[in-house]
Amino acid sequence: MRIDLTSRSALVTGSAQGIGYAIARGLADAGASVVLNGLTENEVDSAIQRLRTELPGAEVSGVVANVATSEGATALTTVVPAVDILVNNAGIYGQRDFFEAPDDEWLRMYEVNVMGGVRTARAYLQGMAQRGWGRVVFISSESALNVPVDMLHYATTKTANLTVSRGLAKRMAGTGVTVNAVLPGPTLSEGLQALLKEQQDESGLSMEEIAAAFVVAHRPTSLIRRAASMDEVANLVVYLSSPQASATTGAALRVDGGVVDTIA
Questions:
Q1: Which tens digit of pLDDT belongs to each residue from 171-207?
Q2: 154 is a catalytic site residue
Q3: Is the four-CA dihedral 147, 260, 110, 234 of positive or negative sign?
Q4: Which residue is catalytic, options 21, 93, 124, 154?
């Protein structure tokens, strides 16, 4: 299968690093013109330079905007008024016991992880429908289904991603626009590496080995017994963004290494 997105434009929110950057790179490698997004000019400029170095000739630009606010989302959509592919990746996470998480922490998690995607989808979906083609992917998490007790606020927002994506897929039925959600499991992103860096330094093991031990200890239902790479997550998103995925919509697709113990 050869995925060709040379005639398509894409926006990936929260793509200056991590899974978002890997998705942006994958889309650019398939030929799409890609808009990167981050919170600071330095991180966006650095990501653009990195992508151009890794993929010479890639058509890439960037916008500094915070989709967690209505003002930030408006700033983004003013600079980028239309796209063919929207990947709602911007998100935050954190561990906190339910009884210690105040209202403002819940609300911040919701603004970033849920409303960020709501705002961009509201801005771009009708244009996609008018043009008769579009792809929207929400990056959820296996935590939406396999709820971690120490991250209830995070898991709640990721379950909301599934509701929004499924509802929008139904709303866009018959328009040529598909809407799906991707549920990564433990992934060897910069965030996980930072979390495990001290353990790695003390053990002398590779980051991959330390991450595998973390998965076995904290996600014992994992079938691959390791963390996924960011590219493994990105590959699924690139496929869902392609013409080949035209019959896949309203789906919640897992790239979780089998962590979620269900066949449905």
A1: 999 999 999 999 999 999 988 888 888 888 888 899 9
A2: yes
A3: positive
A4: 154
